[in-house]
Amino acid sequence: MPALSSKNTFPEWIRQPWPSGEAFSEVKSLMGDLKLHTVCQSAHCPNQSECWGRRTATFMVMGNVCTRHCTYCAVNSGRPGDLDAEEPEHIAEAVKRLGLKHAVLTSVTRDDLPDGGAGHIADTIRAIKAVSPETTIEALVQDFDGKREHIATVQAAAPEIFSHNIETVEPVFARIRDRRFTYRQSLDVLRIARERSEGRFIKSAFMLGCGETPDDIDRTLRDLHAAGCDAVSIGQYLQPTPKHAPVVAYVPPETFREYEALAYEIGFGFAVAGPFVRSSYRSEALLESEFARERLASASART
Q1: pLDDT exceeds 80 at position 51
Q2: Which pLDDT band, with edges at 50, 70 and 90, does 130 fall under?
Q3: Would you state the pLDDT for residue 295?
Q4: Across-strand partners of 163?
Q5: How would residue 299 be classed by pLDDT, with cut points 50, 70 and 90?
Q6: How far apart, in whole angstroms, are the C-alpha atoms of residue 105 and residue 121?
Q7: Per-residue pLDDT tens for 64-83?
Q8: 83 and 221 Cβ atoms separated by less than 8 Å
Q9: CA gyration radius for the chain?
Q10: DSSP readout, the chain?
């Protein structure tokens, strides 16, 4: 079992260039023109420079104010405003103008809405597919309080990947997540999604560096696999501001590679782990993998 680094200084491998360049400016301008939010900006993602430089972004649906407060997350908490009824079409327009072959949608949690925003997310998926029918979509959603009907609403819009992040291991969960999230409920969300997947892909992600042990990581991977996850992403937690939960340890790249190998050993069809890996980072790689091609070919042969 690989060991975590106990080193608590800012290591050399946790460095990224400042965002810049023509493509970066183009994406920034487009998001401003269409009044869209991205998790790249709101969550202070360290991959923003690379992703926007490739003219891609992860859209954050339903505004940039979350009704829950997790101590690791840079997204603002509070009372959100009304939904923007034009947002689905605006995101679809951005996807088309950027020429995205694969789009990732995530959202803030909206406990103030009767359906948690499931209908709005589904509308956004359909709007993208209406103008960019060849574009594949990953929908990274909240827990919807574990309500099957809201999970089903999103799945009915047929995103190629349904994602819900477990975020951390069970012993750390209560310390860094809003109390309304629970580890077991997140596993249930994935299990429910698996039951209704109809051949599509189920994915989750979690962070290292929050105080977890190697045994915790092993257990979490096995829990996610037992819940029906096809794919998992593992990255390094980075403290957004001094007010957020501190980093307990920086995990070396070679240790991430060992956890990636462990995930495959447990049985995941696709796994990626590294200091800068985030749930949405190069999301299309799952659909381009040998595992996905074989799954889709098998599904096609049955129809």
Answers
A1: no
A2: very high
A3: 85
A4: 140, 203
A5: confident
A6: 8
A7: 999 999 999 989 999 999 99
A8: no
A9: 18
A10: -PPPP---S--TTS--PPP-SHHHHHHHHHHHHTT-EEHHHHTT-TTHHHHHHTT--EEEES-SEESS--TT--SEES------TTHHHHHHHHHHHHT-SEEEEEE---TTSTTTTHHHHHHHHHHHHHH-TT-EEEEE---GGG-HHHHHHHHHT--SEEE---BS-HHHHHHHS-TT--HHHHHHHHHHHHHT-TT-EEEEEEEESSS--HHHHHHHHHHHHHTT-SEEEEEE---SSTTSPPP--PPPHHHHHHHHHHHHHHT-SEEEE-TT--TTTTTHHHHHSHHHHHHHHHHHHH-
- What is the rounded CA–CA span in Å between residue 146 and residue 186? 7
pLDDT given for residue 9 in this prediction: 66
Give the bridge partners for 103, in sequence order: 137
pLDDT at residue 19 in the model: 61
- CB 260, CB 289: distance < 8 Å: no
Question: Residue range 71-97: average pLDDT?
Answer: 94
pLDDT tens for each residue of 178-199: 999 999 999 999 999 999 876 7
Closest CA to 69 of 179, 143, 157, 195: 179
Q: Hey, what are 221's tokens?
A: 């991977």
Of 243, 265, 170, 268, give the one whose Cα is nearest residue 212: 170
How many CB atoms neighbour CB 96 within 10 A?
14
Question: Is 50 exceeded by the pLDDT of residue 3?
Answer: no
Residue with tokens 């099957």: 148
Structure tokens at 36: 């869209």
Residue type, 221: L
